[in-house]
Amino acid sequence: MQSNAAGLNTDARESAAFAVQGGATLSVEELESYRLKGWVGSYPLFTPEGVSRACRVRERVAAAFTWPNQLAQAGDPQIFARRPWFKSMHAYVPEYYDAVCHPAVVGRVASILGPDVIAWGLTLIRAVPGNVHRWHVDVEHRHWDGVSVYIGLENITPESSLLVMEGSQNIVDPPQAFGPIADDTGALNAARSRVPGAEIVTVGLQPGQFFLFAGRLWHGSHNTGDQVRVAMIAHYSRPDARIRIPLSFDDPVRWHGWQPPCILVSGRDTAGVNRLVARPHREVQA
Ligand SMILES: [Fe+2]
To answer: How far, in Å, are 4, 9, 89, 151, 260 from residue 211 at the CA level?
Structure first.
């Protein structure tokens, strides 16, 4: 049992944050479903207290990170040394590190990727009412394979949650390769031109629950609800994937030279191509 500098019992704090304590792997049926549809879930992770703490921490630390709308400054080679990439939150916030390493998540990710796994990204996305995140494949996972984990936090409803295109994980091209896509129908038509059985699905989630989806699965969101939605998204790959920071989202993608911190969450790293870091001692200061 550990105590931190404030005298709080770390184990007790962690057990209050998480709804599950042990690990879990995917069953043969779940793995088959993942391979067929490109996603699997949902599963419990955070307690209501853990959800609320994760969101409060975001309010404190968000300004310490470099967000996509600030990438214009990324000509500076040291920008991510001073203000880390917004997808590196797990390397700078102890609570987020604990989430990305949780065995209930990692065990299931390792069922897909194999025993050696790094967590290369974690961020918390706030979507205000009306916010649209276009249909896309994360630019990183267009360049290296992996698994993403979507963890619902606040105001996760069918009106605000992530939409996924079932069956699109095997389409080589991202939605943008099909020309302008105005809406869900346009995305569905594009996907069905390659995979006739593709379907748009809103994954049913309760706050604190998560699901896993293939790095190349098409996804998007449109918050048609009337409240701010907050979700945590984590990204995992095998250690031999060389992780980089994209400065643009469409081809040709520009990359920054800074190596983002990665965390070995399972097994070993024999490739040595990424910068591995340990659990942060304290929260990054905004
Ligand atoms: Fe995405």
So the answer is: 31, 30, 19, 7, 24
